[in-house]
Design brief:
By secondary structure, the chain is α/β, with parallel strands linked by helices. It contains four helices and eight strands; from the N terminus they run αβββαβαβββαβ. A six-stranded mixed beta sheet has the order 1-7-6-5-3-4, with helices on both faces. Strands 2-8 form a two-stranded parallel sheet. α2 packs across α4.
Length: about 190
């Protein structure tokens, strides 16, 4: 008689845990036609809109392996000299445009970049990590945005900021529709 009650309580506890864990993240991605994973891709800067130094570079370091795991093997990273992330007020749009120009000159097909809008530990007793990111994919032949994703996530007080950022970025990147073809037919 106690067994069904115990099973029900366990299921309710698991449901509450799942709802609690998913309640602290928001991710929105645009709908687009599948993009060829085997095409030549460029990794553009992730612009830092936070007060945390080098947050954009930290986000780039997380994004690159996630893209490889999704099947984007030919991913070329923009030259380091184009990165304008400094402690001074950078000209972010100029840096992003310079990186897109570099990718076009390299005759790459797609470029992915974005921004970090929050990268911090919240003030308070628990100091929860909080991350906000956006990613954009451009078709370099047309200059058009073909996909975008944005999200925000906060973690628990003992969770690392990098772990929260990785989970959020993985959720956003998993919304990027990729196909196995080379994209040569689209050139």
């Amino acid at each position: 008689m106690h067994r069904p009650l115990t099973s029900l309580i366990g299921r309710l506890a698991a449901l509450c845990l799942v709802l609690g864990l998913t309640a602290c993240a928001v991710v929105d991605v645009s709908k687009s036609a599948p993009l060829p994973a085997k095409a030549q891709w460029a990794m553009l800067p992730i612009v830092n809109h936070t007060e945390t130094p080098l947050a954009g570079l930290r986000a780039e370091a997380i994004l690159q392996p996630l893209l490889h795991q999704r099947g984007i093997a030919d991913l070329r990273v923009y030259p380091a000299g184009l990165s304008k992330e400094t402690l001074l007020a950078p000209d972010e749009r100029a840096a992003l445009e310079a990186a897109r120009d570099w990718a076009r000159k390299e005759q790459l097909r797609y470029a992915i970049g974005g921004s970090v809008d929050e990268w911090r530990y919240k003030v308070g007793v628990d100091g929860e990590p909080a991350v906000g990111l956006s990613l954009t994919v451009w078709d370099l032949q047309t200059g058009q945005v073909v996909w975008s994703g944005v999200g925000g996530k906060s973690g628990f007080s003992r969770e690392s900021l990098a772990a929260v950022a990785q989970k959020l970025m993985r959720d956003i990147v998993n919304g990027l529709p990729l196909s196995e073809n080379s994209g040569a037919e689209n050139r």
